[in-house]
Structure formats: structure tokens, C-alpha cells
Amino acid sequence: MRGKQDRPADQAGLRKANLALILDLLRGHGQQSRAQLAGLSGLSKATVSNLVSELEVRDLVRPAGIVAGRQGRPGMLVEVQPRTVSGIGLEVNVDYLAATAIDLTGEVVFECRVPGDVIALGPERLLDQLAELARKVLAAVETQGAWTAGITVAVPGLIDPATGVVQLAPNLRWRKVPMADGLAGRLGYSLARITVDNDANLSALAEQTSGNVVGVTDLLYLTGASGIGAGIIADGVPLRGAFGSAGEVGHMAMDPMGPYCSCGSRGCWETQVGLIALLRAVSTHEDPVRDPALDLEQRLTIIRARAERGDRRTLDALQQIGSALGIGISILVNVLNPAAVVLGGYFATLQEWLVEPARREVAARVLGPDAAGARLVPSSLAFNAASRGGAYAAMRRVLDDPTLAPVQTAEATEAPA
Amino acid sequence: MRGKQDRPADQAGLRKANLALILDLLRGHGQQSRAQLAGLSGLSKATVSNLVSELEVRDLVRPAGIVAGRQGRPGMLVEVQPRTVSGIGLEVNVDYLAATAIDLTGEVVFECRVPGDVIALGPERLLDQLAELARKVLAAVETQGAWTAGITVAVPGLIDPATGVVQLAPNLRWRKVPMADGLAGRLGYSLARITVDNDANLSALAEQTSGNVVGVTDLLYLTGASGIGAGIIADGVPLRGAFGSAGEVGHMAMDPMGPYCSCGSRGCWETQVGLIALLRAVSTHEDPVRDPALDLEQRLTIIRARAERGDRRTLDALQQIGSALGIGISILVNVLNPAAVVLGGYFATLQEWLVEPARREVAARVLGPDAAGARLVPSSLAFNAASRGGAYAAMRRVLDDPTLAPVQTAEATEAPA
Fold it and tell me: Which family does it belong to (chains A, B) (predicted)?
């Protein structure tokens, strides 16, 4: 049954779609006159003028000077309003919490990462710390006078997006944690504006929006953290699977009788290329790199330094992990045939030593010439990808429905509750 | 950029889309009056009457009697015309050729499978035999007075759909075989109406259209033949990847240092669960089941008989293959999270012995409860799935654009060249 679903249901729906279209065009093409927007959108000039006025009233676009018109008539340019609206992304991971805020132009207006032992904290105390971090972002954004479109939290696990409950996060040792509720309650922030999503899915969104693979429609993002997950984008659309748990690539059975994994199974890819496997491979038990007082960043700095000075054990370990990484990627490329596989997290941090051995395995094991067209691309966002993606996802609410942004009046510039 | 692409470009495009919509509604809902079609489509009654008339003139629908109307006014029913249009599917596989013809209602009007040693034949002689089979189907369909919408050929390999060239089919030992051209030339059939696609993709289409998983939007079809491929449907849409080679699951590296595969790599899934691996596992070199004079069907009959009478070697081999099947499926389920994994080919023929060990591995190795919702479903179409899917794909041409069907005049009922 085609046809009907594609049409907006009513006048209000049509108007929302047209407002969203104009906003998208301004974000994609930069400053434009109303006549240019009419040309790009296929809408009449009168309709465009009307839509632009509404976007101005909601503080989403602003005048941007005058350009000489073709018949000598000058045209007034408009552009997306920076700094008035923020999308906020938060990330919970095994070793750290992260936060990013972006504005409507996509510019990052706030970003930070704080180390933390999330497993030891447990869900309740973690939520306290996450709320504290969120308050810091909200304060920073409010200082700039911006209204927040929403908050999206990235978590490495299976999420129920409808309720914002983390169903299962083996690496955090979490089961059924009501993340959205817990955060909304602590912050006094509208539950309707908080969403929770898988970290890899959000990272893929970030890469596709602002990273090294902008515009690539078939890609795979691999988290390189304690857990290994994939965010899959196929033909431009996130692939989530029948029940939302696609991309659990860390649990591919690479070595069916191999070591036990946090999920209870054996020989999962994560046991070969997760952060813990990296630490085990590069060090003995007594090695300072395993000092519990160190955070992720410090550990990776030590490993990089050793690799740079040619330490044999470190180089052998990275070679072995790079190969295991490549074998797993070759499976994913045979299954999904992406144009790019983005290497996130520590895979990006240690790319000089991991990418070549990985590429060799991929070239040897993928059916078809040149790895069936798949490039391996280290992420430029590294450990910031998930919170960055969260910020884009949060902003999507307003980009898809600009009428959610409050109308600015002379008296009040406050957002509705 | 949204909005514009969704609208048909012009009046002719809109009319085609509406004709296709009416035809889809009649195929999905059975006999309907014009008033009912107006209700289902959202189009006016006058428009529907006009569209139905055009479909009648093109012999795609026919009157189907009278039903009492709500206000006492009788309504004339219409229904899809059976037997006037045929979609033809052909399949080339290592051990056999197959053909299916369906009519507009989806009913199979012709189906056959002939054994053959496709590798030994080589591309040119294979094309001769395939053309001979196609002539047989075309003759059968013409005898019934039907016009053919097109021919779609299923091949186990990487296909360039634009040119109909088989780029690489390791199990057939083929490289760059111009399948569409070769067939069109031999048949004197319009090249524009011949398409070539991957066997697993077409099988997935067949299963979703008429098999055991009708209407399931996230599924995976696994060929169980000499080659192992997957047809992937994600969120209702075939997943083909960036360059059309998604689903090459037979070459997943299950045992990186394992035996060599036809693709040149080592330890591919195919070397564990392909037909040749089955034959090796159930028999020694001298075993009659390996007699080159036997065809696939006869071999599987012998294996079934041995398993049924409890032959230890056979049962152990099937158990081992079932486990290897399940380990590979667990990887695919972790990556794709389908609602159903359809077991095709010999996996269906020997389902009594393969499904349980496979299910155990899947349950143990997929993250999330109950294999993340994935059911294992033996195919009801078995070795007919690919040609059946080809027939549906060929019919799609006319279903998407009913104006391709020739207008029937009193003098001539022939199709245009």
C-alpha cells in the first residue's frame, strides 16, 4: 500500500514539513534570499516569505544582509540563527561520562568528558553524576541565551526508545535502568524532551553529519571502547533491526570455544578487540598501564608512547589486535557492503598501528575486488562521537518540527514549560 | 532535501502511481467495488472508475459479479485478471536450473527444475541450456494466452543490475558473464525486459511474498546450496549495500586458519555449511552418496534416509553442521536483529536434524533474551525460492507501471515488441 503515508496528513502537517524544508535548505546551502529558497524548494515566493517570517518569529533564522538581485533589485538574505537553540547529547560509558551541546548551525558550543568508574558507581549514583554534568551543560547553554531542543543520552547497550529504559548493558552490568525517567526527575526537565539511544547508533549519526564520512549513505561506525558496538546506516537510514538491537557486533562469535565474555557467551569479538583485551595484550599483570588510578586517556597515552618508541611487546599486541579487528570487519563488510567503516574510540587513537593489519585482513577476506569498495576510515571524533550524535539527535526534534520552538515576544523570551 | 522527490514528477507519473495503487489494492484485498476502492485509496469515485477502465482495457482486471450496496444500490465488483500476464523467474545454480512463471494474482502457473553440472558446462553452453528452458516456459505461458511482463534470472554471485552482468560467481567459477545480453540474444526477447539479480535477494522476496514469513519486515533468507548467501530485508526494504554485494555471508571468516574456500580465502562459513561440506561430513570418499552420476535431489534423499534410520555418522555430521549453521546465524542476528531467519535449500530439506542444534547456538550466542526475538523458520519453498522470487521481481515491472501492459483491441491481442 503506497501513496497515502507519504502525504502529510493535514494542513498543519504540511506547514510543519514546509518549515522543516526551509530550515534544512538554509542549513545545507547557507545564506539565501527568499527567491532562492523558492527556487530550491519548489514553493511559491509568497509561501516562502510566510514560512521565513514564522521561522524568524521563533528565532530560528535571522536577516543576513542584502545581496544584489539579478534585475538590479536587491534581495534580503536570511540565515540560520546561531546560538538560540541547543541540542544536548550526553554519553555514559564504562570509563567516562561525556556531554556535547550544539547550536542550530551544527556548531559545538560546549563539550566535555569526565572520567568515572561507571560500574562501581551503579545506576543510581551514576544518574546523580550524569544529572550534575547535564546541569553544567544546561547552565552553559542558558548563559548564551539559548533554548534547549532536548537531551539525548547515549548508552552502550540495548535501549527501549519508547520508554528510555536501558534494557541490557553488559559492560555497565546494567539491566532495566529507567534512564530517561531518572534523569528527568533529577533535572526537573521535561520527560518528553529526553531520549535514550544506543551509543554506536548515535556515533554513526555524528560521523555522517560532521565527521569524516559526511554524506556517505552506507556506513558502519565501530565503537572502540570496553564494549564494541556498530552503528549501521544502510541506504541513508539507520538500521535498527526488528526489535532495536541490531549492531551488537561485539558479540559476534569469533572463537566459539574462546574466553568467556561479559554477556555470558564465549569468544565474542569484544574479548579479542575490546579495551580490556587491549590492556591484556599490551601488558602483564604488574604493568603500570593497568594501575586502577589511571583513566582511559592516561592508559592510551602510555600505550601510544610505547608504540612510538618501538616497544616490541606493544607493537606485537597492536598487530594482533589489528588483525582480529580486520577479521571481524571482513565479516561485517561481507554482510553489509558499506562504503565506509569508521573506526571509533581507541581504534582511532591508535590508528597508526591498527589500521594496516586490519586492512590486510579485510582485503584478503572480503568477496569482490578492493574489499567490495569498503574504506576503513579512522574517526576524527574519537571518544566524542556518541555525545556529539546525541546532540544532533536532540536537535532533530526541532528540525523536524520547527513549531516546537517557542514564539519570541517582546515581553518574554522564555521557553514554555 | 525532503518533499520534492516523493511527489510524482508529472501528470503521467501520477496516473501510473494511481493505476499501480488500484492494482495493489485489488491484489491485497481481493474483489472490490469501485466505491470500496475509492475508500481504500482516498481517491474520488470518478477517478477510480476511470483508472479501473484503463486497467480493464489493458486486461489487468476484470468484472467479478455484483454485490448488494449499502443503500440497496448494487455495486459491480472487479478483481485482478488471472492468466493474462506472466512474470518469469529463472535460476542458475551449481547443480540445477529452475524456472517459475506466475500470473498477476501471484499464482504459480508453471514450475520446473532440471539437474545440470553448471561448472562443467561453462557460461556459453549454460546460456544455451537456460535459453532452452526459458523457451519452454514462454511456450507454456503463451499457450495460456498470457503476455510476459519480463524475465528475471537468479544467480549465486555478485551482479551488476544495470547491465545484467554476473561480475563474480565463485561457486560457478564465473567472472564477468553477460547474462542478460546472452539470454536476450538467444531468445530474441527484449533486453529491457530481462533483469539479473542475486539468488538470495530474490529468495528473500519470494519468502516475504508467498512463503512462511509473509509480511515480516525484518528478515534474512539463507540459501542452503553449494554457496551460502543471504537475502536481507531490513524495515521492509532489500538491503543491498553500497555496491550491491551485501549478503555474502558464505564468506564470513568463521575459522581464519581453516580450509581454503572457492573464493581464495580461508575458513569461510561456506566451507563449514555449504553442500560440499555436508557431503564431506556425512560420507567417506568411496561412499555412493558422492557418486557423480547422482543429482542434488538424489543425494539429499539418501542422506535423509540414513538419518531417518538413525545412522550414527550421518546424525553426528548433521549435528555438527547444525551447530556451525547456528554459530554463523548468531553472528547475523547480533548484527541485523531480524524477526525471522528463513532456512532455504538443503537447510529446509534436512530441517529435522539441523534446526535444533542451530537454535541452541543462536540462543546461547545472541545478546538479549530469546535470541533478540529472531525465529528460525525453515523455508516452504526450498530450492524453488529463487526462481519464484525472480517471477515476482519480473512481475513488479507491470505492477509498478501498469501502462506497460498492452492495450487490448478487438483486432489484435498481441503485445508490442
Answer: Belongs to the ROK (NagC/XylR) family.
